[in-house]
Amino acid sequence: MDSTQQWFDELFTKNYKRMISIAMRLGFPPEEAEELVQDAFLLLLSKSERFQKEHENPGGFLMESLKNLMGTRLRHNKIIQFVSYDEIPETATTDTYFSSLKDRLPAELSEEDKAVLVARYEEQVPYAELSKRLGISQKQCAQKVFRAKNKLRKIFEEEEKNSNYVK
Asked: Which CATH number goes with the domain that contains 161?
């Protein structure tokens, strides 16, 4: 096995499951999550010579690539799924494909943090409106969202760390 293949295999083994997990936590179905992660690895592989010699953190590149690919996919889906207000039914329906973000957030996260994350990312409430709801400035609102995301990230990292110990 040549050094590039070994380098790539080590990166793949180290990052693949975690990247799939991240994409699925953000609401992508397993097949789509796998496709996005594979695309991120293909990007890395296309630049493997440069990364092997110069880049200090190819794992970081993979995560950043995955983030960008997911963002592009979400924007693309949003454009395609555009529905005018006239076409929206009067009665609300339950989304059977995606569960609510609130239902998927870990119990360790406070109710306030859950509410902020749901408003910002599921309901896509702009900071200006969210700050009015909370009765705080936009800057404080952005900090509250940032802190809630960090708490969530730490919980996920701890879960990931604990699941690695089980293996």
From this structure: 1.10.10
Range of the domain at 120: 98-166
What average pLDDT does range 51-64 have in this prediction?
A: 78
Does 90 reside within a domain? no
Residue 106 belongs to a domain:
yes
Nearest to 113 by CA among 139, 152, 142, 156: 152
Integer CA distances (angstroms), 5 to 1, 15, 19, 48, in order: 6, 15, 20, 10
As for how many domains the chain has, the answer is: 2
pLDDT tens digits along 120-158: 888 888 888 989 988 999 999 999 999 999 998 898 888
The confidence band for 91, taking pLDDT boundaries of 50, 70 and 90, is low
Show the tokens assigned to 123. Answer: 């309901």
Q: Is 100 exposed, middle or buried (0-12, 13-18, 19+ CB in 10 A)?
A: exposed
Q: Confidence class of residue 83 from pLDDT cuts 50, 70 and 90?
A: low
Q: Is the model's pTM score more than 0.85?
A: no
Query: Which of 54, 80, 106 is the endpoint of a domain?
Result: 80
23: part of which helix (H) or strand (E)? helix 3-25
Nearest CA among 44, 97, 99, 98 for reference residue 66: 44
Residue 32 lies inside a defined structural domain of this protein: yes
The token duo for 152 is 């969530």
